[in-house]
Amino acid sequence: MYLRNACFSAALMVAASSASAGIIFETSAQNRTIISWTGSCSDCLGTKGDDSFLNAINVSGNIVVDGFTYGEDYRFNSSNLYSFQYDGPSNHVDNLIIYNAGYSSEDAWIDNSDDIYSTIERTEFLTTVTGTVSPEGYYAEFGENLSVVGKITGDLESYFLSISFDTYVPVDPLTGEYIKMSTLVNSGQETLLKLITFDLEFFDDGTWYIKANDEAYDIGRNAQLSVTQVSEPTSFGVFLLSLIAFSRARRAS
C-alpha cells in the first residue's frame, strides 16, 4: 500500500452496520458517481460483535464508482469501483478511505503489501509508529488491489456489495486483534504490524458488516437507497514512515 506524498498508512476498512445508500448524480470527466450511504450500527460504540441493536447508532460513508446510470441495473467489479469511504463513528475501526489501485493503470495508488511481503518474507513485523497530525476529524487513507463484486438495481431498491482485500495493520501482540491506527498516532511507540484479510459486505436484505480474518467488527442492518449529497473528506495524516524506511533498507541490502 502506498500513500500520496509517499506516506504509508495502515487502517481497517469498516462497514459492518446496516446501510442506507444514496445515489448522487455528480460525475467527473471519468464518469464517476458518488453513492453515499448511511446506516444503523449495532456495536460501533459498544462491545465488538454485539448484534442486539439495543444501542444502535447512525453511521455513514460513500462509494465512488465509474459508469453508473440512474434507472439501469449496475454491477460492481474491481475495475469500476474507485473508492470506498467510512465516516464512522466507531470504537473498533478508524474513519477511512480505501482507494482501488486496480481502477486504472494511471492511478496514483498502488498495492504495496505484496512488495512488503516479498521484501520481509513474513506476515508480521515490529515497527515504530510516527505521526504529527491529530486523528480527530481526519481519515486513514490507503490503496489496495481489491476483489469487488456486487450490483445495484435500476430502481435503487436494493444492492449487494462484497469487497475483500489484505493489508498490513497494527495488531495487539497478545490477542492478534486489529488496533485503531488513530490510537497510535504521535505515540512513537513500537507496534506489531500483521498482514490481515478484510471482508466488507452489504446484503440485499439490508444487513452489512466488516470482518477482519473472519471476525465481525462493526455490524449493521436496514440498508436502503436514497439521493443525497456528500462532501469531500479531509485526509488522515497517519504515517508509518519508519515502515517505508525499513522496506527500502531491506530492498537496498
Radius of gyration: 18 Å
Instruction: Specify the number of helices.
Output: 2
Distance between the termini: 21 Å
Beta-strand portion reads 35-45%
Count the beta strands.
14
Biggest beta sheet attributes:
14 strands, mixed
Choose one word for the global shape: globular
What is the helix/strand order? EEEEEEHEEEEEEEEH
- The whole-number mean of residue pLDDT values reads 75
What class do helices, strands and sheet pairing give?
A: mainly beta
Helix % is under 10%
Low-confidence stretches: 1-29, 227-253
Features:
disordered C terminus; 14-stranded mixed beta sheet; 14 strands; globular; 253 residues; mainly beta
Task: Please give the structural blueprint.
Elements: E1 20-23, E2 32-41, E3 57-66, E4 74-77, E5 81-88, E6 96-100, H1 113-120, E7 124-128, E8 140-144, E9 147-152, E10 159-171, E11 190-202, E12 208-212, E13 215-221, E14 224-226, H2 241-252
Parallel strand pairs: 1-14, 6-8
Antiparallel strand pairs: 1-2, 2-3, 2-13, 3-5, 4-9, 5-6, 7-11, 9-10, 10-11, 11-12, 12-13
